């Protein structure tokens, strides 16, 4: 390849990366911003605050159920086609949310919106792998991680600012504009990846959706004190679906549930480490606001500014770690990152009853840096541990690990809050232990075989 050709390919890759960053920013911003609108939605439609949470809950169930099926569909018919169609569905559904005449219509529109989110979320890293060489994949994933961190930190602030001058519908209006921009950018810049030419396993997809949904119902049910009938029914569905999924996946070349990839020790340990990391992070994100408000006596603005230190540290460090991960083994790097995250949690758990904003910002920054050190090398390794033709399944698995880590972290946080908001600081020791468990899983990858560097 000549220098001019190499420069041209580099520009194409940069444009595709920018399009993917645009799309991931709108899906992440949506998940963070909509939560701030729940009180206004409940007031506008005259529904109880508990009922308004279905605006978030319905979308969560759909996303988890469809991540792996959408990844499988992308492998069969083409990443680009499914990805862009998903963005179009997201944009259309977001407009329906903005125009929803009543609460049931809003919940239904959010469910449709989640279908688009699942499709885009499941194939983002697969498309990234097609536009970046293996030697530069870590750098690209680091930039994506920075985008996620920035969107996560800006989402509540942007939503809150809009609500001071307009209704909650304006928040969805902003998301419509952003999703249309992402759709146009993707249509122009994303490459056409030849499909596998296989047949989509519809029954397998339904079984996987039932399996993941039942697991999420059990986790949420335990956290929220749902009836034994609901929990036992969900557990039975999970058990039956698991048996059926494993039976259907046996011998399949590209199963919807990636048993072929999970049979690879490096891949499986990386998924375990990711679940542990997101469980610990979610514990912190849910419980620390209660500690700052009711334990440390912070005001809401002071609390928000202090919490922003965490994602800001992640956003700053992630691109640097991305370049670093292209040169060094992920096992040691990931373990070091989770060890740093655990140290940050331990420092928080040992704080006195009246910390200053400056003193608590330091361990928050340590947590953010630890997560950045872990996440990018780990995601890079997951993608490179899978054959290129199974990139969609690997990408979907990354998203499933993230969602389940968040679900488990939310359940543990709910149990901790039963003892009162001030008890949340004690749970940081548990978060440290979970991060430590993830560090062990990450380091174990160096014991099963040499990691991909």
TrEMBL record:
CDD domains, per database record: MFS_MMR_MDR_like
Residues in Major facilitator superfamily (MFS) profile domain copies: 11-450
UniProt keyword annotations, A-Z: Cell membrane, Membrane, Transmembrane, Transmembrane helix, Transport
Domain of life, source organism: Bacteria
Pfam family, one: MFS_1
InterPro entries for this protein: MFS, MFS_dom, MFS_trans_sf
Sequence intervals crossing the membrane: 52-70, 82-101, 107-128, 140-164, 170-190, 202-219, 225-246, 266-291, 303-321, 333-351, 357-374, 404-421, 427-448
Secreted in keyword set: no
Subcellular location per the Swiss-Prot or TrEMBL entry: Cell membrane
Keyword Translocase set for record: no
Membrane association type: Multi-pass membrane protein
Main location: membrane
PANTHER family referenced in this protein's UniProt entry, alphabetically: BLR6921 PROTEIN, MAJOR FACILITATOR SUPERFAMILY MULTIDRUG TRANSPORTER MFSC
Name by which UniProt lists this protein: MFS transporter
Organism: Tropicimonas aquimaris
